[in-house]
Each structure stands twice: as structure tokens, then as C-alpha cells.
Amino acid sequence: MNVLALDGALGAFSAAIARDGRIAASLSEPGNVALERGLAIVEATFGEARLKHGDIDRLAVGIGPGRFTGLRIAVAYAKALAAVWGCPLVPVLSFDILEYGSGFTRVLSVVEGRPGVISARYRAAEELRRASGRIADVLDALHPEGEVDVVGAPEDVLHALAERAIIVRSVEPLVTPAAAAAALAAGARSPAKSLHEVRADYGELPAVTKPRR
Predict the structure, then answer these.
(1) Of 4, 134, 146, 153, which residue is least crowded by CB atoms under 10 Å?
(2) How far is it, in rounded angstroms, from Cα 10 to Cα 44?
(3) Is residue 209 in a domain?
(4) Is the pLDDT of residue 193 over 90?
């Protein structure tokens, strides 16, 4: 099975092709390059893998949470390509991308949407909690305990955890770039039943909040 994956949520635009469970090619460019460079990166990934569009069996896309512009464009590209090529599309959360391939037993996965605002997921045994908002509010809501592996967290989140006397081990994602993890994860998942089901998950506070009366 050949899987093409795109991701624009995690600070870069990346594309990857997995062939039978192994990465055949992957490319990534940092920054807000999705609109100007996204399709060129996809084409270059095909060239590196020595495959044609018709060789792709399914697509995958990182659906966030994450950076608004790159996420929105990556999802739009993936849905358009899936429609044109007649391929099924697999949505993959940023948290699953960050954790892919790692055997965490207690993990806090963090995505920074904008300065001071994060989306995070806490997973321990059968427990799974998620929250978005300002750092202090998110950590209060998730209430991680004990020794926790932390992936994707910027320095301000690590400092906030230290202030709560939480023992953390900051780790990097095992599989990079993000599209490579999405491509591998998608091979073992069921595609969306419809392209309309695949939506970007921004995971941030609303831009405007109504004042309390």
C-alpha cells in the first residue's frame, strides 16, 4: 500500500509517502510556506519516491490541532487530491502524530497554537483527557500527575509543569517530519467514510469572547 500524507499544523509543511509500512520519501519546509510551496513539496516527494500519482492507494492528513493557516491549507490540499484521484482519506490528530511509535504509558502531548495558548492531551492507562486554552487553564483542567513524558511542549509549558512540582521527561517525536508519522499511522486506520467528515481541528480559544454580564 502506498500512502501520501500531508501536514501543515506543526510548524512546517511536510509531505511523505509510505510504501508498505516504510517511508519511501519525506520532505519538510519550516514556516508558513503551505500556500506558496505546498504543492511543489508534494511533487518533489513523488520524485524522491519515484512514484506517480496513480500509484497512491490512500491519502492521510494531519487535522490538528495546530497553526491555523498551514493546517487549513494542508486539509484543503488533501481533500482536493483525494477527490481528484479517487482515493480514500485518513484524518490523523496532531497528538497521534507526536506520539507515533513511542511506547508511552503516561504522556502529555502539547501543540502550541499561538503564544501562551495551547492544545494538549493527557493519556495515562485508560484515562484520556484533552483541553485547549491558556497554559495555566489547560494544565489545571488536565491535572497530570506523577512522572509524565511530555512531547511537543515549548519552554513555557515545561516551566509551568515544573512550578506544579510535576516530574517530566521532555522527549522529541520519534518519527519526523509530521507527515511521515501520519503516513505510517494511516496505513493501519480506516479512512473517513466521506471527505466531508475530514475537518480541521484548530483547538484554540475563539478569537473573540463575549463579555460577561
Answers:
(1) 146
(2) 20
(3) no
(4) yes
Helix (H, G, I), strand (E, B) or coil at 98: helix
Helix-, strand-, coil-residue percentages of the chain, each rounded to 5: 35, 30, 35
How much is the pTM?
Answer: 0.93
What's the pLDDT tens digit per position in 109-158?
Answer: 999 988 889 999 999 988 999 999 999 999 999 999 889 999 999 999 99
Burial of 141 (0-12, 13-18, 19+ CB in 10 A): middle
Distances (CA, A) of 26 to 79, 96, 114, 202: 19, 18, 26, 24
Could you tell me the CATH number of the domain that includes residue 131?
3.30.420.40
The whole domain housing 139 covers 103-171
**Domains contained in the chain, number:** 2
CA distance linking residue 134 with residue 31, whole number of Å: 23
Q: Nearest CA to 94 among 123, 62, 124?
A: 62
What are residue 176's DSSP bridge partners? none
